[in-house]
């Protein structure tokens, strides 16, 4: 089965972060999803660190210049 | 998942201009284009294999084909065209005579191509088309979902995904790109959230919502970076409306403006999303206690926040 991929470039600005956190929150522990964006989503990482500290891991799969892909995993409980 | 732009974003484009179109898509981070047959090759009944051979020769990154109609007589040529590029071709569901659907499906199965029947976001219509596709009993037929958030409700998206996920071979999204700012509050975020959880990994084709949007798409394609904002220096307050700044440039713009503030000065931000991410980023990148962050207006469409740089005490 293929992975979960959320392309956030297509989502209106104020729905981006809610869609990302809802997708993350729907994951089982040990699962992950690939976030696709048109810029480095590091502000989001700060928000993850502030609100879901210790519950996620963050791995860059592609770093620009036009597309960024980050594998965001939910840590095993 | 491959994200492509329909050549409908540049109607009337000459065949030789498609290379530049594909290159503009690449600069925008898109994986390729959807070639609309009949637009660059004469009438809608023109031979579909010719533009596909030209596309292959030019090395275009064709992710999907779109045709206006197909029947038992025209199916073999269209199927060969799709098979030659190893991409699916979609047609409006209503444009295939139902009595010929099985024969059309067989032609695609023989050629090794895949035909996707396009539908909208009304569950009843999707179920009717799904039944017709299943009755033809060939994996060479599938569905293409046309998502029009600006004109059609997405309320039945969950049921559609549940019913038709296995047959779904393409999503065509009317919007995104320069239009994403107009599509708030229409379920787009939830749609992509649910599509992601369904593990959809087929092509996703962006398409202008209508001809009125075409000039914005052509500007969007031509400029892959937007200008930031002006910087203030000694002003006590700088107003910055980031709604006109491209999402990818926003944080740099805000941080740049913040760093240009004098001690005690305030940055007044206007945004179209919750500014929490900016708060967390400032907290992570700037010295602790060096700023005060206050959200002064909450959505649903517009947010306002004030960031004050704390002054050096004298």
What count of structural domains of chain A? 1
Task: Please state the oligomeric state of the protein chains shown.
Answer: heterodimer
Unreliable segments of chain A (pLDDT under 50, ≥5 consecutive)?
none
Number of domains of chain B: 2
Q: How many E-type strands of chain B?
A: 12
Q: Mean of the pLDDT scores of chain B?
A: 88
Query: What is the helical fraction of chain A, as a range of percent?
Result: 25-40%
Number of strands of chain A: 4
**How confident is the prediction overall: mean pLDDT of chain A?**
92
**CATH uppermost class of the largest domain in chain B:** Alpha Beta
What fraction strand of chain A? 25-35%
* Helix segment tally of chain A: 2
Radius of gyration of chain A: 12 Å
CATH homologous superfamily of chain A, by name? TusA-like domain
